[in-house]
Amino acid sequence: xxxxxxxxxxxxxxxxxxxxxxxxxxxxxxxxxxxxxxxxxxxxxxxxxxxxxxxxxxxxxxxxxxxxxxxxxxxxxxxxxxxxxxxxxxxxxxxxxxxxxxxxxxxxxxxxxxxxxxxxxxxxxxxxxxxxxxxxxxxxxxxxxxxxxxxxxxxxxxxxxxxxxxxxxxxxxxxxxxxxxxxxxx
Length: 186
Known about the structure:
Layout lengths: L3 E8 L3 E3 L12 H11 L2 E7 H7 L13 H12 L1 E5 L11 E4 L4 H10 L3 E5 L1 H9 L5 E7 L7 E2 L9 E8 L5 E7 L2
Parallel strand pairs: 1-6, 1-7, 3-4, 3-6, 4-5
Antiparallel strand pairs: 2-8, 7-10, 9-10
């Protein structure tokens, strides 16, 4: 059985992008990116909303970019090997391999996916993750706190939910980023 993981990079005040829609402050340095790659190796399926999928599409052809570092090439390999399910009413076809477009998020379908998966699953995009959070589907929260306060923008977590969590890992990086890993208390 796979775990459903919500992993995100946020500002200290809990935003995934600022009021201008920028998240350039969240770009991981080599140390953080290497750590992320090692976390991602256990992922068999990515669940995305359309917006995040369109950002992540870069990794489908990233190998063609000669400026990529070894760490970035490693991530491209990890991403390309995984299955992707994209929830979108506007996308009709996928722009990447191993990708299925689904019109709407269905909690029972994701619950079945978790129970039959031999690897972990991540969910990305705050709006999509909010559906899974409210349905009680998230097993683990992985948050990378960036050393910045942006004062507003797109929140990583939805309002009006309460979930008891157990801290199971933490790590501080040289650039001031702090990784927190929580498991949902059942």
